[in-house]
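Final paragraph of the annual report: two paired records, presented back to back.
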Amino acid sequence: MPALSLQHLQMFVVLADQTTLALAAERLRITQSALTHRIREAERRLGVSLFEKSGRRLRPTAAAQILTDTARRVLADLDEAERIAAASSEGIRHVVRLTVGNYNAYHWLPDFLAWFRDRQPGIAIEIEPNAADAALDRLSEGVLDIVILPGARPVGLADAVDLFDDQLVVAVWPGHPFEGCAHIGARDFRDQVYLTYSLSSEPGFEADRLWAAEGASPLRKRNLGSVDAICELIKAQAGISVLSRWGISREIAAGSLIALPATQGGIAVPWRALVSRT
């Protein structure tokens, strides 16, 4: 699950746009001490340094700049989705609260909301981007109505609706030595920096279907806690990863990332909508 919340993404953008910590705190409507705490919280979650003191200003590190660029795109996607959702607010009888786990993959949302509004004008959809960290817990508690997730079907938590089949792919930058390979195996990762958003092993993903299946795993792992940060570091040639093809489809289409099959037969992963029973 992503390590950073929407508040952290907003923080990166505001800090980049304001000249001092005081102005940034004022823009965010929090105290300077609260802003400092939020920065330290993000650094602790990611395990990296994000800002350096330069007089009265904070200078972003390379990691913070990567996250800032990503935050601008994610917030723009959410702003557009909220605009469309607000436009359909008249005559609303029900509200459905939804989040996407693991990936900030909301590029599909504006078109989906427009399509859904035409067919179900009495139902509004609210996006909960901050809920991904504990999505299944919030679903069982009734805080969320739908969670979209890749991977195995959970038992007893919710009703699962199969959406589509996806592939786990090895994501590299254009020009990487792997580019053009027919497929990538576990042993190919031995000399690579492997970027991940979680060090915990989930069934159905690379831990058991690549590393365990082939008896090898990366020697150098770096946990970034965020798929968006992983994509930016791959583009910066700082490592490679195993990710959902659908989750990074925009980067693949733009040519900024190259997707290669993981193993000779590929690794299929289903996406499902988990629907609350409450």
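The closing record of the year follows.
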Amino acid sequence: LWNNDPSYCRSSGRNAVDTASRTIYIGIRVVLETEAVKEALKQQKPPAPDINSSWHGWPADAPPPAIAPFNAAQAQTHQDAWAKYLGVPVEYGNSIGMKFRLIPPGEFLMGSAPEEIEAMLKRSGEQDGRRSQIESEAPQHKVILTQPVYLGATEVTQAQYEQVMGNNPSYFSAGGKGSEVVSELDTASHPVEAVLWSDAAMFCAKLS
């Protein structure tokens, strides 16, 4: 999310955009399975889950899961430990220059607490759509990632999207309707936006 009020930059938001709609304020980010990276690097697969495991099928010698909350230093420790255990890098780059960071197995709370939602509703005014979006952040619930994944270090850039798809739908681009706003900027590294859900899915399929 960019070019908007900071209050909109909330990963717990749901129902913000219909899958058949384009929005000029939201980009896309790619998730990659660690096995795909391991195959690309021609490395061995991680140890098979053991029935005597201690956490969601992982062998007893696996590193501890990354259970939030934790600080940046602890997050790095989790990444380093799991990268070593799996035999993969913490950061992986693909053929078009996209960078991915390893997200270890773990647990976190998704969504916003009641007091957070109440505070955001006070800031939202009377915009029904915005209020509905904020309210959709409840209830807060635990999410368990039982497998590691790679997550794009940044949103997909306009240059990366165009390299794969052959077009750039971005509003804020040299050829977009909002070109005047960015006329003095090199938008190649800006996040691609105004992407349909189906186009995002096709981008991921082609990227694979």
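The beta strands are 31-33, 66-67, 91-93, 99-103, 106-110, 141-145, 149-152. This concludes the annual technical report; the extension proposal builds directly on these records.
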